[in-house]
Specification:
alpha+beta; 3 domains; 7 strands; about 40% helix
């Protein structure tokens, strides 16, 4: 095949005085240089973030983090996803929707605001379809029982760990914290970091005054005698039964 290509380059087409190789060399010299960066195959529009931290693109609304409210952004619409950018940073990537009048939320975009308004946690529209593992609900119930009103805010702080760590990492840390009985934002974050850095956890229970305390007393010989007497009584009753 290579020999055939070389032979073809030496041929002259009808009406031409130059060979194909000579014409290709001349044409190549006339070509423009390639752009310094790859072509970004997307549709771009400049727009402004709404007061609800939403950006409209092609009849649908996509969420951005609440700190970018009312700011100018660039929307890049690709075939399968939409990127909302500020400068060179992508502040909100989304899967593209081809429906109409849809709201495409990322719950993580609203957690910073909910931390300031924890009472809105159950009514916030961006969180209504957010499905989390069962341990998250269990953690929230325990936090609210033990810390009362502070428990909900503490739970939102745990959710905010998902801004920097994966769902699997946070879920595993919650399970560990529940097992240790040291539920709380600080403990869960500590367990995540320990897992990443592969070091043992060092949890100080004095940092969790709302947790129930175990009372351990010194062992007395008389206590063993009472337990022994009780065990003998139960054995005797079992024989008569």
């Amino acid at each position: 095949m290579l020999d055939g290509c070389i032979k073809r380059q030496q041929a002259k087409l009808r009406g031409q005085t130059e060979t194909i190789a000579e014409r290709m060399k001349r044409d190549t010299a006339a070509l423009m240089a390639l752009p310094p960066v790859p072509f970004d195959a997307c549709h771009k529009i400049s727009t402004r973030v709404s007061s609800l931290s939403l950006v409209r693109y092609r009849s649908n609304d996509y969420s951005v983090p609440t700190q970018y409210g009312h700011r100018e952004v660039l929307v890049k619409g690709y075939v399968d996803h939409v990127d909302i950018c500020m400068g060179t940073d992508t502040i909100a990537p989304h899967v593209r929707s081809y429906e109409r009048e849809e709201f495409i939320y990322d719950p993580l975009h609203y957690l910073a605001l909910l931390e300031q308004k924890p009472r809105a946690l159950d009514q916030a529209a961006p969180l209504q379809d957010w499905i989390l593992p069962e341990v998250f609900d269990r953690l929230r119930r325990l936090l609210e029982v033990r810390m009362e009103r502070r428990g909900r805010k503490e739970y939102i702080q745990v959710l905010r760990l998902l801004e920097n760590f994966s769902l699997a990492q946070v879920e595993q840390a919650i399970k560990q914290a529940l097992g240790f009985g040291t539920i709380g934002f600080d403990a869960i974050k500590h367990l995540i970091l320990c897992a990443i850095e592969r070091r043992p956890a060092k949890l100080d229970l004095t940092l969790y005054p709302y947790l129930p305390r175990a009372s351990v007393q010194s062992t007395k010989p008389r206590a063993y005698l009472s337990l022994l007497a009780k065990a003998n009584q139960q054995a005797a009753e079992a024989r008569y039964d």
